[in-house]
Amino acid sequence: MHIQEWLETIPAVSIYLLVGLVIGLESLGIPLPGEIILVSSALLASQHGEIDPVVLGLCAITGAIVGDSIGYAIGRRGGKPLLDRLGRRFPKHFGPQQVALAERSFEKWGMWAVFFGRFVALLRIFAGPLAGVLHMPYWRFLVANVLGGILWAGGTTAVIYSVGIVAEPWLKRFSWLALGLAVLFGLAVTLVVRSRMKKAAQAVSVPAPAGAEIPAQPATRTPVGE
User: Fold this and answer.
1) Of 5, 74, 93, 169, whose CA is between 20 and 30 Å from 25?
2) Where is the VTT domain (predicted)?
């Protein structure tokens, strides 16, 4: 059964709770389809009046902010060993290349990695725990977390709901055409993102030239953003 078809069978209150829970768990660091659930629920709200898009957006925002904050606390307490355990359990999401790419993004962009990470599937899962592991000052993390959560969760809900309202009559007449175009667009985006992620991961894991001097690692890590 398609996600949207399944969502149509449950009460509105359950949809609110489901959206908040799934997005919260994804933000905490568990690989779940939070964005798919949010988009499907927002589209469903545009077709069913009993689902309030404002309440739906608030639940999504709350789940995103709370989940990221819990992930930050877990990462701060668990440190590097936590990432190692997650890498063994979820190698496709927390493997060495993915961790190296995420760390490089955080070290380069700091709190902006948390903010913009909301819009990138990989960083959305990493943002909270990795910010804690790297000891990013909590106030910086909180600002980026709140702003990013509002813009991503609230913005996605508003945009998809509005598009659903406008496009519903057209989609009823050209449903198969719309489905085909959506699938082709999704495949194209997936291929482009995977290609860029692979190139970035390869750049991170390139070995040092033979004979090159490897600088000594410092005993302690300077917190990100300080």
Assistant:
1) 5
2) 32-160
Please report which residue ranges of the chain form alpha helices under DSSP H. Answer: 3-7, 12-28, 34-47, 53-89, 91-94, 96-109, 111-117, 121-133, 138-149, 155-173, 175-204
Contact yes or no for 40/157 (Cβ under 8 A): no
pTM score, two decimals?
0.67
Say which residue the tokens 């599937």 belong to: 121
Q: State how far the Cα of 66 lies from the Cα of 181, in Å rounded to an integer.
A: 35
Radius of gyration of the chain, Cα coordinates, nearest whole angstrom: 20
* CA-based nearest residue to 127, from 162, 90, 93, 164: 93
What does the CA dihedral 162, 166, 169, 173 come to, rounded to 10 degrees? -100
pLDDT (tens place) for every residue of the chain, 226 residues total? 556 566 667 778 888 999 999 999 988 878 788 888 888 888 888 877 788 999 999 999 999 999 999 989 988 887 777 777 767 776 666 667 767 777 777 777 778 888 887 887 767 887 888 888 878 888 889 999 999 999 999 998 998 888 877 766 655 554 455 545 555 654 565 565 556 555 555 554 444 444 444 445 444 455 555 5
**End-to-end CA separation in angstroms for the chain:** 49
CB 37 within 8 A of CB 19: yes
